Amino acid sequence: MTTMGSLIGLVNRIQMACTALGDYGGGDNSFSSLWDELPSVAVVGGQSSGKSSVLESIVGRDFLPRGSGIVTRRPLVLQLHKTDEGQQEYAEFGHLPRRRFTDFNLVRREIQDETDRVTGKTKQISPVPIHLSIYSPNVVNLTLIDLPGLTKVAVEEQPESVVKDIEDMVQSYVAKPNCIILAISPANQDIATSDAIKLSREVDPTGERTFGVLTKLDLMDKGTNALDVLEGRAYLLQYPWVGIVNRSQADINKNVDMIYARRKEREYFASSPDYGHLASKMGSEYLAKLLSKHLESVILAKIPGITSVINKGIDELESEMDHLGRPIAVDAGAQLYTILELCRAFDKIFKEHLDGGRPGGDRIYGVFDNQLPAALRKLPFDRHLSIQNVRKVVSEADGYQPHLIAPEQGYRRLIEGALNYYRGPAEASVDAVHFVLKELVRNSVGECQELKRFPSLQSAIAVASYEALEKFRDEGRKTVVRLVDMESSYLTVDFFRKLPQEVEKGGNPATTKGGNPAATPVVDRHAEGHFRRIGSNVSSYVNMVTDTLRNTIPKAVVYCQVKEAKQSLLNHFYTQIGKKEGKELAELLDEDPALMEKRVQCAKRLELYKKARDEIDSVSSVR
Length: 623
Fold this sequence. Notes:
The chain is α/β, with parallel strands linked by helices. Helix content is 56%, strand content 9%. The protein has helices at 6-20, 34-37, 51-59, 104-119, 162-174, 195-203, 227-230, 249-253, 258-271, 284-324, 332-355, 362-377, 381-384, 387-398, 408-420, 423-447, 455-489, 493-497, 528-568, 571-578, 582-588, 593-622, and strands at residues 40-45, 76-82, 90-93, 96-101, 130-136, 142-146, 179-186, 210-215, 242-243, 503-504, 522-523. It has a 9-stranded mixed β-sheet, sandwiched between helices. The protein has a two-stranded parallel sheet with strand order 10-11. It comes from Nicotiana tabacum. This is Phragmoplastin DRP1E.
């Protein structure tokens, strides 16, 4: 069996660790708040309900700030640890983990100072809790959360919204199904007007989570008592009401010892004609034991659920850590290896875009299948091979000596002039593919999750890739222009040999072997039909070249740009990286500070969850 309080102590440690990470319930955290899953006891009451006195009676020490108006302005998570008899009492704050307070007047001052540190020396409130652990042989193992007292009016230096702000803060705690509500109400006021009961009724209408505490029984008018409340007739709860008799203001002023006050409280109930029959279930000592036993039983019942939340949180956090990346080693060799691994991760994504594993590579085919043919169809061959232009070009090519048989120079000039038009579509294809490749680089850099950690390396890889693509584009331009120039530099002779020969009108026609005239057309070199035939012949040749270039330009572009990008996009970058010193490598792996902080917090939360899981397993195995 577990020792009493081992489970409560476990929850205490988890709550303290959660607060250190800023995860204290009701916040906007990336993961389900572990705090929200932990059973706790929230102390709720209106101002002057005796809430602070109840807590001090349970602890057996005078340690809480006192004063008029709102004194408790931050939640106080009070964790009580029972020690062996004879051991010295001391307190520790979560924000001062290695400092022990044996003077409880200093504890009161530190609560006030820590409150002012967050809220300032005003009457503002804050949801950030203060963690206080008290070790004493005079307490039971228990955790209580002291919340700001409910109020109806804002006092000086407080905004008008403070009434609702306090109620919302208290609601954020007591509305959770794992929260046990300790509702403090003064006996000298009508229970129907109790702020604590009103609030608990809203969030726990059946009273399954509420423990009612009635204070100031000794201050009721003579001849009256609170039996209707204590015996559940005025307002029924699932658990019996507990009456408390606090120290009087005179006792507080005289610094009456809390242990003595407990004894006086026991004597009051034992000797009371009204409450004597309930004496064994009255008083702050009984209340503490009741809450401790109930809290441990609730924790025990909630362990499976808590374990499930912890395991789910560990899975989520480990996934997040994988997404954020593990910390980088400090030695140059490991850093170089990391950079190369990141480059390979980027290169893999880039190749997937080209090969069809990811979208985008098909746009390159779109350049060859749509853009290039459309550009070739728009070339101004109709104007270039119009009768007027053909006559002009042929006449200029003849010079002072008209051609005798066929206008060869005219043909050459017409063909060369037509082929020059191919340069535009050829270079446009190179530029279009270059643009697609740059887009794929940009997309690949953005999609490489590992690179997002390192903006400097991300930028360096992008710049190096763009520089490589520029070189590939230059080579691609040279190659496609060279293809066009090759077509211009040597015409396909067989094409022209197959054309029917023309004889100028009045000339001697060719004869066959039998001496008969050959079927060679006789033309007038000044006639329109002659120039139309020349234009038609040139157009046929140009169409043949168009078909050739439509196939060879894509081959050249793929060979010079796409293939090179797949094979050697980062080759020069690798060479440069290999020459860098440790400091330069570290600069490339300089992470985004926000991401680094996110990883640190994620690692701390993961450590908390794993430690909590191990402790629960340990406690469960003992049990």
